[in-house]
Amino acid sequence: MTSVSVRDRAPKLRHYLMCRPVHFDVNYAINPWMDPAKPVDTELALLQWDTLYDLYRSLGHRVDLLNPLPGLPDMVFAANGATVVDGKVLGARFLNAERSAEAPAHRTWYRANGFTDVHEPKYVNEAEGDFAVTDSWILAGRGFRCTPEGHQEAQEFFGRPVISLELVDPRFYHLDTALAVLDGDEVMYYPEAFTRGSRDVLARLFPDALLVDQDDANVLGLNAVSDGLNVILPEAAQKLAEQLRRRGFRPVGIDLSELLKGGGSVKCCTQELRF
Ligand code: ARG
Asked: pTM value?
């Protein structure tokens, strides 16, 4: 695995949905990263977000935009609004009331854009915050947000095997803060974010996974987006960038420090539409 060179890696064009942080703020705390007493620079958040948006487009990816709604400061974290696999849309149901109105906004966007199979879930799931799609499985986090019932509901809706993984560290409250899909069935993760049993499951399914250390996990280095070659990740995750390079990926570091105050980074801002 470590001998793969850049030449062997091939980027696939992706389709993303994002939401500009026009109303971004931290005025409540639903994860340990959020401190309402700390000032947020919304202008800077917009500039940083624009860099990410421009980067995706320069790589040839399609990015659609969701209309940002006032009163929903976390709406920039579009990954939490829906999960799209095989063109089927599993809506979200947020655990916290502060974010619940984001879910219908996403479903409305999908219906308006020609998606016919849109499911409004019965159980809590925060979409790609807790679901990571590999070629063979849907990996699903639980412990903080998504529930086991939510995992079950996703398996039933998509007809794909859902692998339930338990998160243990409140700083890594969503699966996408602790694990990322690099390509096909290739993943990277921070083992300490999971229970013993879930770590064993990951080791069994992904013996060649890239293991990420605490320093890189602590800057949300795992909140990354890969197109199969380019891996967009927080620029502070320096060691991780080197590990990725050695595996034949092309890491692209980006500074989303303002959005980190909300507890999110690259992946949280990026919902992927899969067909
Ligand atoms: N403040 C948001 C929350 O706690 C951040 C969500 C980050 N999104 C993600 N996909 N991890 O819900």
From this structure: 0.96
